[in-house]
Amino acid sequence: MVVQLLFRDKYVYADGAIREMVIWRLPDTDNERPHGLKYRLYYGYPGKCLVRYDNERGKGDHRHDGDQEEPYTFISVEQLIRNFKTDIERLRGDHHE
Q1: Residue 67 and which of 61, 82, 84, 90 are 20 to 30 A apart at CA?
Q2: Which of 80, 17, 69 is nearest to 43 (CA)?
Q3: What is the tens place of the pLDDT at every residue in 80-96?
């Protein structure tokens, strides 16, 4: 089995902010990715990340909030997306779209 793209979505807000979500299913699980997924959820502006969830090699599941990085407890894809969208709502404040 090869890496399988499960989900890809990109949205550009009127103010230029970008929301991009990409999730892949890996052929095998391992200690760093016991859920068998590789993901990158990004929100920010060109050249400026405001929040990102990802699980790159050597770091496992984690979250970037501005310049801060912290471990993230992966529960499910649905919860991951909910947490990400909650962060975006917090960051956007009154910029509704």
Answers
A1: 82
A2: 17
A3: 999 999 999 999 986 55
